[in-house]
């Protein structure tokens, strides 16, 4: 079985790779140093199992695991952590398995033997502990491949029937997440200006009336204009005054 090793510390990756060398039936197909790289390699290499560190800079292991669950054939996730055992209780039931650092050979062997490709219901349980904080990236499928868009590069979300357009610094993608849930998750970073639009707070350049007398938000850098509904004009005005 192919195993992807993910840890931001080189000694930890090397130790896991060395332990894997002594086990028959498994091979390390690649290694990653952060969550974003892990998701991209998982999509490219299609590992059977991912040994996934939890605490990493940027995207942590819990968020990376959620993105991997969007793959057509999700890998089995084994979390690797330096947490004390009492802290593991918070997410223990949401992982396929977990290993405490420093990882022991016998424990690794047992976890690998128990880990198989989980079904989507199992991976859906990963929503639990990671759901307490907003994601650092939005995951979209573009031409059959997963694409990760950093939330801090997104200008706005705009709903159109069942899809939401994610306009970002590198272009735009479509996702199928409800605008309401995006608003709840990213309320500190985005402001609703219309029933169909959320705009990044750091993308506002101002608000102006158009020739029809309707208010529009003007975005920084791009100069794009988005309609502001009457019910949200006051809130947008208050926000702009606070800048």
TrEMBL record:
Q: Which residues cross the membrane?
A: none
PROSITE patterns (UniProt xref): HTH_LYTTR, RESPONSE_REGULATORY
Alphabetically, the GO molecular function entries are: phosphorelay response regulator activity; transcription cis-regulatory region binding
Q: Which UniProt keywords apply?
A: DNA-binding, Phosphoprotein, Two-component regulatory system
Q: Which is a GO BP term held by this UniProt record?
A: regulation of DNA-templated transcription
A GO term from the CC aspect: protein-DNA complex
Ranges for domain Response regulatory come to 2-116
Domain HTH LytTR-type: where?
Answer: 138-242
Residue positions of the PTM 4-aspartylphosphate? 53
Q: Which SUPFAM superfamilies match?
A: CheY-like (SSF52172)
Its recorded name reads: DNA-binding response regulator
């Amino acid at each position: 079985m192919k195993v992807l090793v993910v840890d931001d510390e080189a000694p930890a990756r090397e130790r896991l790779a060395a332990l894997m060398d002594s086990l028959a039936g498994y091979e390390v197909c690649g290694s990653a140093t952060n969550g974003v790289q892990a998701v991209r390699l998982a999509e490219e290499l299609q590992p059977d199992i991912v040994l996934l560190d939890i605490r990493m800079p940027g995207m942590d292991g819990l968020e990376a695991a959620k993105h991997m669950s969007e793959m057509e054939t999700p890998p089995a996730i084994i979390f690797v952590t330096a947490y004390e055992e009492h802290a593991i209780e918070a997410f223990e039931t949401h992982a396929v398995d977990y290993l405490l650092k420093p990882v022991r050979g016998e424990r690794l062997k047992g976890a690998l033997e128990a880990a198989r490709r989980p079904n989507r219901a199992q991976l859906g349980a990963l929503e639990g502990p990671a759901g307490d904080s907003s994601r650092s990236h939005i995951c979209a499928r573009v031409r059959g491949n997963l694409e990760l868009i950093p939330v801090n590069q997104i200008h706005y979300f705009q709903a159109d029937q069942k899809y939401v357009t994610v306009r970002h610094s590198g272009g735009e993608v479509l996702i199928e997440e409800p605008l309401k849930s995006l608003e709840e998750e990213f309320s500190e970073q985005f402001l609703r200006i219309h029933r169909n639009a959320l705009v990044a707070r750091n993308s506002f350049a101002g608000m102006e009336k158009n020739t029809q007398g309707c208010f529009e938000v003007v975005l920084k850098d791009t100069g794009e204009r988005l309609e502001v509904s009457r019910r949200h004009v006051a809130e947008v005005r208050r926000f702009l005054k606070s800048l």
